[in-house]
Amino acid sequence: MKRVLLTTGGTGGHIFPALAVAEELRRQFDGIELLFMGSQNGLEKRLAEKAGINYIGLPVRGVLGKGFGAVSALARLGMALPKALRIVREFSPDCAAGFGSYAAFAPLLAARLLRVPSILHEQNAVAGASNRVLAKFCDRICTSLPDTTGFDERHIVQTGNPVRKAIMQVGTRPRDFLGKHLLVMGGSQGAHAINMYICDLLPRLKELGIEICHQTGNGDEEAVKAAYAEAGMENCRVAAFFDNMAQIYSWADLAVCRAGASTVTELCAAALPSILVPFPYAIHDHQTYNALAMEKAGAAKVFAQKDVTSDVLGDQIRNIMGSKDVLKAMASSALCLASPEAASNVVRQMQEAVATRNSRNKKLKA
Question: What share of the chain is helix, strand, coil (3-state, %, to 5)?
């Protein structure tokens, strides 16, 4: 393949698998041209450009609720499609790959109208609303899990969830597990409840000599920084978002976080033990499904948000961080769940989609 279009947006759960596939495409195809299409001001723009991928934003936004908001979002989609058609026609990709979210609608529909082979990747056990519709436009559907629901089974191929190479490498390195480094995060958008639990625990964690790297999300950054300052924990790092996650995963002994698909996939790849508090309002409750699979394998401890208190969380952090044997066992269990070939599996499906379409076109011309 010489040119590939990647499209997604919204959260890191959609974006990071796309970037992992971009890495694999560059590894396999020297000189390949990549184009990333998403929303005009989303996280995907910054991350794609940081990865050195040409980026074009479309005037799209999610369809939230009903009424005027939904009408406005659909109107924006109508405006985005002509632009997407022009860009896809000019770029002339060999294949288009979508990774979910409203931002992929116009690019994948344009690819379908222009007869460009396309694949779709679903990260969760239950297909999201966007991907259920987008699947109708695509030649292949790649899933992270073997029992994903919401698609026509004839077109599903389990590939695993792609993870960036630097994070995959973390899990292969030996770790000391000193029990002093705690990572707190709520995914790319943060998690207010987890942020507040940890802020309440800061005096206790300070007494235990624990250093913290805390990804807050945009909404809570200043309040959380103030809590750390008040607790006198100047040795801790607090930011809305961290780009160097491979380094942070390597540094950490334990993570306290949500259970989005990409989060748990990266935890497994990095062999990082975790305490998971699934987002209770996720569609189809997919985060609970992800978390319980981790707990069943021995890679995580799981708590429903309604059952969590600062004391409960503090006790778990102390018990896990205080035992090197427990940390090592959880790390080993996490690594067993990793899918190191996921990115190459997705690329293989892209190649097969292209080959199938080319073969079909030859037969039509014969």
Answer: 50, 15, 35
**Residues near 139 by beta carbon (within 8 Å), at least 6 away in sequence:** 117, 118, 119, 155, 353, 356, 357
Residue with tokens 């624990």: 210
Q: Supply the pTM of this predicted model.
A: 0.90
Of 39, 116, 47, the closest CA to residue 79 belongs to: 39
Q: Which residues contact 206 (CB under 8 A, 6 or more apart)?
A: 231, 232, 233
Could you give the CA distance from residue 65 to residue 208 in angstroms, rounded to a whole number?
Answer: 45
> Could you identify the residue written with the tokens 């807050």?
216
Residues of CATH 3.40.50.2000 domain(s) within the chain?
A: 3-163+340-365, 167-337
Structure tokens at 191: 């998690």
> Between the CA of residue 168 and those of 13, 161, 211, 269, 339, what are the distances in Å?
16, 12, 24, 5, 9
Tokens of 331: 């790390």
Asked whether 51 and 19 are in contact (CB, 8 A), the reply is: yes
pLDDT band at 252 (very low <50, low <70, confident <90, very high): very high
Question: What pLDDT, in 10s, does the model give residues 35-75?
Answer: 999 999 889 999 999 999 999 999 886 554 444 444 455 55
3-163+340-365 domain in CATH 1.20.140.160?
A: no
Q: Which CATH class is domain 167-337?
A: alpha beta
> Backbone phi, then psi, for 60, in 5-degree steps?
-125, 160
Angle between helix 105-113 and helix 68-91 axes, rounded to 10 deg: 50
